[in-house]
Design a protein that fits this description.
This protein is of the alpha+beta class. It has 13 helices and 6 strands.
């Protein structure tokens, strides 16, 4: 999940136009220390807004009337604070707090796409069993029943005068394939390649699900961090409005309230993104819609890991990536298919048995044996023998052989192209990780310098040797660099997840733990 590179510019204008606000905010951002950026409580709010006039063509704004309403009700801002940061009980009602490992473990078991790959494996195994046909008998049977004349010497007259009997014929055949000049072995081998392909598809889907889980989890943490930063600014601004409610001019009050509402819009946007990230996690984990979840972590931090050399990631990708293994399996299957088409000129050899029984219900007269000394109505025939069967279609089979050979060459070229593309993917992902890490370092250094600048400008302002504008600019810079830092951490963590996916790495998670 990606978020805009900065959601704070409008917030900074708030501090520039709010008279006296720098003094209040100095309590939290004055010293150049990470401990000052402490955690505020996280809430989820459901706001009920009254429908107002349209910005164009609506009623005119009566500023004096609005201010009078606030002055007549001293608890106006307190009520607004309660409306904005008060959370719904049903949202906070015992959600599941899940770590990243918990989310991955649950998703690998319950994710619908992962479960679907299991059925793909079972289907491939069934096809392999079907292809293992040697020495397995094949049974065929048929039953024929029909009315026949009662007098065969006068068949037509007897039949149409109602002199009929009922005749039944039961046929039973069994055949056992013995030898097919390698065709049976090739068919079985191709089916076994299908099992390997189904397993690689499962592994590919598992790796993809893990990457999506990590992106959503880090996205939820990013939204929480941005919301926490915005809530701190909202709280300080609200305190300043309450503190100087009587000493501000109507213009200053209107500016402050306008920016306060803009802050609330930004906070609501961050909350919506967090809710979407959590919903995405729930869907990926295959949980019921009525299950409320939240992330266990409270802070977005860079992943602590050792970045290996690029060559090792390339080597792992060429050895482990499921799509490359699928390409290799495709080449093997096409090669065996080509060989199978060439052998279809050769016959199939098998042994079999035949039983044929005919009987009639009712008397049948005038029956004579045919030229092959068999009774056409009452008979029992049986036999055992060997069958050699084949088909020679030089024109059609030659065309099929050429087509199979072309498919084999095509699959071979696509395999080489897939290897080159995989190497390129790994290099790009590796560079993205390297760039993201450098951005973290730079943004961390930038926010430290911003805190130092804020500390110096605050002291100068309090001593009377500095101006308010420099202090406000320094405060804006602190907020900006802090937001950039969170974004850099998110990009770095996601880049690491993508790099591991491109290298074909599946996290070692015990799904039965």
């Amino acid at each position: 999940m990606r978020y805009p590179r900065s959601i704070l510019p409008i917030i900074f204008l708030l501090f520039a136009f709010s008279v006296g606000l720098p003094t209040v905010l100095a309590e939290d951002y004055g010293a150049p220390s990470d401990s000052n950026m402490h955690t505020s409580d996280h809430y989820n709010t459901s706001k009920q807004r009254k429908a107002g006039d349209d910005f164009f063509g609506g009623s005119e704004v009566n500023e004096d009337e609005d201010i009078a309403i606030e002055n007549e009700n001293p608890d106006y801002l307190k009520a607004r604070r309660k409306l904005f940061i008060g959370a719904e009980e049903k949202f906070k009602a015992h959600p599941l707090r899940l770590t990243l490992e918990d989310c991955i473990r649950i998703a690998l078991v319950n994710n619908s796409k992962v479960q679907a790959t299991e059925y793909g494996i079972e289907s491939a195994k069934a096809k392999a069993d079907e292809a293992s046909a040697r020495f397995w008998p094949v049974f065929e049977y048929s039953w024929l029943t029909a009315p026949v004349p009662g007098d065969f010497s006068n068949a037509v007259g007897s039949f149409f005068h109602g002199d009929i009997a009922w005749w039944n014929k039961l046929t039973f055949n069994v055949g056992i394939p013995i030898y097919a000049f390698g065709k049976l072995d090739l068919a079985k081998s191709m089916a076994e390649e299908g099992i390997l392909a189904a397993r690689e598809n499962k592994r590919k889907e598992r790796i993809s699900v893990v990457t999506q889980i990590r992106q959503l989890y880090y996205g939820a943490l990013l939204a929480k961090e941005m919301e926490r930063l915005l809530l701190k600014a909202h709280e300080k601004l609200l305190n300043e409005i309450e503190k100087k409610k009587d000493g501000r001019s109507p213009i200053e009050r209107a500016k402050a309230m306008t920016f306060l509402i803009e802050l609330e819009n930004r906070i609501a946007d961050a909350r919506n993104k967090e809710a979407l990230a959590l919903e995405g996690l729930r869907v990926q984990m295959g949980l019921n819609p009525d299950v409320a979840i939240t992330v266990y972590s409270e802070r977005l931090r860079p992943i602590k890991t050792v970045i290996k050399p690029l060559d090792e990631y390339v080597k792992m990708a060429l050895e482990n990536r499921p799509d490359l293994k699928l390409a290799e399996i495709g080449v093997n299957v096409q090669g065996k298919k080509y060989e199978l088409e060439k052998r279809k000129f050769l016959p199939d050899v098998g042994i079999g048995a035949h039983v044929d029984i005919g009987r009639s219900v009712g008397g049948v007269r005038g029956v004579t044996t045919t030229d092959n000394w068999s009774n056409p109505v009452h008979f029992t025939r049986a036999g055992v023998g060997m069958r050699v069967e084949g088909k020679i279609d030089i024109h059609g089979q030659s065309a099929r052989i050429r087509g199979a050979r072309s498919d084999y060459y095509k699959a071979s070229l696509e395999r080489y192209m897939a290897n080159d593309a995989a190497i390129l993917d790994v290099k790009k992902a590796y560079l993205d990780v390297d760039t993201a890490y450098d951005n973290i370092v730079r943004s961390d250094v930038a926010q430290k310098y911003a805190r130092q600048l804020l500390f110096l400008t605050q002291n100068n302002f309090e001593l009377g040797i500095g101006n308010e504008e420099d202090y406000v600019n320094a405060l804006q810079l602190v907020l900006l660099t802090r937001g950039k830092y969170f974004e850099s951490v998110f990009n770095y963590n996601v880049a690491l997840a993508v790099l591991e996916e491109k290298a074909g790495i599946l996290p070692d998670v015990d799904i039965y733990h």
